[in-house]
Amino acid sequence: MRQFESQRLKLRRRFGGDGLRALFLTPSAVLLIALLGVPMAIVFAYTFLTRGTYGGVTSAWTLENWQRLADPLYAGILFKSFAIAAVSTLFCLALGFPLALFISRAGRRKGLYLHLVILPFWTSFLVRTYAWMFLLRDTGLINTVLLKLGLISQPLPLLYNYGAVLLGLVYTYLPFMVLPVYATLERMDRSLLEAAADLGARPLQVLWRVVLPLSRPGLRAGAILVFIPCLGAFLIPDLLGGGKTILVGTLVQNQFTTARDWPFGSALSMALMGVVLLLMLPLARKDGPGGGDLL
Amino acid sequence: MGEVLELRGLSRYYPAHKALDGLSLKILEGEFFSLLGPSGCGKTTTLRLVAGLEEPTGGRILLRGEAIEQRRPYDRNVSTVFQNYALFPHLTVRENIEFGLQHRRGGRPAEAGKRIAEVVEMLQLGGKQDRSPAQLSGGEKQRVALARSLILHPDVLLLDEPLSALDPNLRKEVGVELRALQRRVGITFLFVTHDQEEALSMSDRIALLNDGRLEQTGTPREIYQQPLTRFAAGFLGRVNWLNGTGIRPEATLLSRERPANALRVYETVVESCVFLGNRLHVETALPGGEHFIAELPCPAEGFQAGERVHVWWRPEDELLLPV
Predict the structure, then answer these.
(1) Which of A35, A67, B16, B82 is deepest in the core (most CB within 10 A)?
(2) Of A189, A200, A290, the CB nearest to B103
């Protein structure tokens, strides 16, 4: 302890009053500026340039990329993307909260269940998405079994629609809901639940009036962790939605690949980021107990 | 006065030990009853069993003659003031106080408003009702916890070391207030504490527990002056033991000259003499090496270490343990 203290003093002398803080923050700050700040600045600059014939940009300045965003076509796609992300988040909330609650009450099996929640991360996201395709396609496992059993005569259209996209998103991002919610449930003072029961609340009332409100920080964190990647998802809509479901993530990706329109893709992604930031602002500003703990 | 709560052979066993082992008690209507004992003696377990927060391994709990040990916590007309108060942090003081009224069987009573006003006034929480618990002092939190429970008019109010979370110099004062409050509302208090001074000063009766078993019940005076076991004698205060006879330090007398007609007199050597303001704390050693402590009221003449003195006492001050 004393050794640590003297080390601390030495650092303090070397780096001034906040020596330790500077020491700890510098690596991540450098990393963020180099790998996030600079690329974002480049992308932002691209939005004012003209597309090159084979991708890339030419140096003619223009506002055209921003003006194109006003096209109702893109507003529609953006809206649809928000809707899908919002519905996915709601499903994750509805599925994730009970699951987290179950795990937090599981006693000695908690560790096992938590590992099961994290288990999917052990394989590639791409592989898991392809696995869903094998399950859902016309000649996939589900349709084959149902056909063989004679329950259906035609394969069900399970793949290449919004339902499949939704399923893929919920499946992929559910752990991001479960883990923060579990963390708040785990931290929750048990005596509050006992007090509620002691004051006459039945289990469901305890859940509704005490557990749920006190889980809000976790639910909020989970909602943000699910909503934002869902909004920008392009792989899942592409693979499970086929070409039919154009969402903003796939749209951006298309601009950079097949359409070879980097400036417009940049404008789209900047616009998306702006909207998300505007949406998140009230959450980040929220003060008081349980608020402001994420951002 | 009849009994409001009766425990019959109440037990709670854990795989490794017996937290409570066959406790039988009768608690009278309107009583301030304390469960006293060292940590791990089973006093908090008893409270939790009565509240329904733990299930007994065996035994019965009778509330107004009705067996309640199988009932869920929300179905028992008792209420608990938790050690850390367990106020709901997301609710205001007023919402905390109302919580029980909204959930108890029969719904929100018609006179809810009146009841709230009553407890708020009684516990001096006026003006604090819209605060969140985080904005309250320790004493205020405790009063909210009390209000939240008292508003339900429980048959028994269970208090789990409610003073231990308070500032030490606030404890005595709050203890006195608690006692006065209990008198005023007339509700039976079952009070858990490990602090013998708290138990002595506040209780009508005390049950002393040790190692999951009942050691003794009685009024504070009975337990202090007529302990039934060595443990009871020692837990309530210091005792000098001499050939099986116990003498409290404050009943011990000390003098340089041999007292004229005292029956129990021993010659000792003063080891230390400490002035404590209201009393002198004198430690002496008998020739056999046993320590003998005397607490003498001040003003009393001081003694020098190494001085030869006589310890003696009146026979009626001896603690006689039943054999």
Answers:
(1) B82
(2) A200
Q: B128: closest CA among B102, B95, B81, B80?
A: B95
Residues of B with CB under 8 A from a CB of A: 51-53, 72-74, 78-80, 82-84, 86-90, 99-100, 103-105, 132, 134, 148-149, 152
How many whole angstroms separate alpha carbon B90 and alpha carbon A66?
A: 45
- Count of domains observed in chain B: 2
Q: Which residues of A touch B87 (CB under 8 A)?
A: 195
Question: DSSP class of residue B319?
Answer: B
Best mutation target, A192, A194, A198, to test chain B (most B CBs within 10 A): A198
Q: Structural domain of residue B250, as residue ranges?
A: 238-317
CATH number at residue B253: 2.40.50.140
Q: Quote the number of domains for chain A.
A: 1
DSSP state of A53: B
Q: Whose CA is closest to B125, among B92, B152, B100, B158?
A: B92
**Residue B226 domain-assigned?**
yes
Please count the residue pairs, one from chain A and one from chain B, whose beta carbons lie less than 8 angstroms apart: 70
CATH number at residue A280: 1.10.3720.10
Task: State which amino acid sits at residue B85.
Answer: Y
Query: B292 lies in a domain?
Result: yes
Of B196, B231, B266, at which residue does a domain stop? B231
Domain shared by B77 and B190, yes or no: yes
Report which of A82, A105, A101 is spatially closest to residue A169, judged by C-alpha positions.
A82
Q: pLDDT tens for chain B, 323 residues: list them.
A: 689 999 999 999 999 899 999 999 999 999 999 999 999 899 999 999 999 999 999 999 999 999 999 999 999 999 999 999 999 999 999 999 999 998 876 667 778 888 888 899 889 898 899 999 999 998 899 999 999 999 999 999 999 999 988 888 888 889 999 999 999 999 999 999 999 999 999 999 999 999 999 999 999 999 999 999 999 999 999 999 988 888 999 999 888 888 887 788 889 999 999 988 888 899 999 888 888 999 998 766 788 888 999 999 988 888 888 76
B79 and A198 within 8 Å at the Cβ level: the answer is yes
Q: Tell me the CATH number at B146.
A: 3.40.50.300
For residue B276, report the phi and psi dihedrals to the nearest 5 degrees: -110, 20
